[in-house]
Amino acid sequence: MAEKQYEPTPTVIADDIHITYKVQSGGSTREVHAVKGVTFVAHKGEAIGLIGSNGSGKSTLLKAVAGLLPPARGHIYTQGQPSLLGVNAALMNDLTGERNVVLGGLAMGMTRRQLRERYQQIVDFSGVDDKGDFITLPMRTYSSGMAARLRFSIAAAKSHDVLMIDEALATGDAAFQRRSNARIAELRAEAGTVFLVSHNNRTVTETCDRALWLEAGTLRMDGPAKDVVAAYEAHTKPKK
Ligand SMILES: Nc1ncnc2c1ncn2[C@@H]1O[C@H](COP(=O)(O)OP(=O)(O)OP(=O)(O)O)[C@@H](O)[C@H]1O
């Protein structure tokens, strides 16, 4: 008997979205059209890489999916509350890592009880304490890699309907990248959708099954991560 085929469940639908920034410059207002008519559907269980050159609109698109920027035109539908984990996520530099774990967890909707239960797991996962008692020091004493690891660990402690990661992995070392790849795989298994913005093509092919390639605000290609990365690499390779 043929196995029953399940329809994939959409988690994010972006329908012809346009996003503009208004910039005040020398008394006049200029408009930057950062995303120009992007359409895609993301499904439960997918990990989707967003690639493209600097300024192509990747972060802007993620912010729009997270509901932080309203589209000027078009519509975004999401199932559940998307969480954006960026390298600039709102952790406080003057507070200790410890306090940031608590505040970051609460900001993501974890209860105090969940936080108590998962606190040590978050700290251990981040590896921030591996080289001494750094978790009790202010975050400004952390290297950029340590801070990024703590941010990822806080966000990854919770199952998300839609988790968006902006370059958080690129700064981790090899051991941390292995741990975070494994955690992303678990998050996917918990039936969420993961978006990852990265300039590291290998990270994208290793962690994502699908990729969107943005260029100058438009979607150049959407398909299996290895195909999209190969096309992007062919495009960015210096011409002889
Ligand atoms: N706050 C802002 N105000 C005005 N313009 C902005 C703002 N943020 C981004 N832009 C512009 O929007 C466009 C897309 O930027 P975005 O940060 O989304 O690109 P990106 O693909 O994430 O780039 P990168 O790879 O460099 O991080 C760029 O032209 C950028 O100058």
Automatic annotation (TrEMBL):
<dbReference type="InterPro" id="IPR015860">
    <property type="entry name" value="ABC_transpr_TagH-like"/>
</dbReference>
<dbReference type="InterPro" id="IPR003593">
    <property type="entry name" value="AAA+_ATPase"/>
</dbReference>
<dbReference type="InterPro" id="IPR003439">
    <property type="entry name" value="ABC_transporter-like_ATP-bd"/>
</dbReference>
<dbReference type="InterPro" id="IPR017871">
    <property type="entry name" value="ABC_transporter-like_CS"/>
</dbReference>
<dbReference type="Pfam" id="PF00005">
    <property type="entry name" value="ABC_tran"/>
</dbReference>
<keyword id="KW-0547">Nucleotide-binding</keyword>
<dbReference type="InterPro" id="IPR050683">
    <property type="entry name" value="Bact_Polysacc_Export_ATP-bd"/>
</dbReference>
<dbReference type="GO" id="GO:0005524">
    <property type="term" value="F:ATP binding"/>
</dbReference>
<comment type="similarity">
    <text>Belongs to the ABC transporter superfamily.</text>
</comment>
<protein>
    <submittedName>
        <fullName>ABC transporter ATP-binding protein</fullName>
    </submittedName>
</protein>
<keyword id="KW-0067">ATP-binding</keyword>
<keyword id="KW-0813">Transport</keyword>
<feature type="domain" description="ABC transporter">
    <location>
        <begin position="12"/>
        <end position="238"/>
    </location>
</feature>
<dbReference type="InterPro" id="IPR027417">
    <property type="entry name" value="P-loop_NTPase"/>
</dbReference>
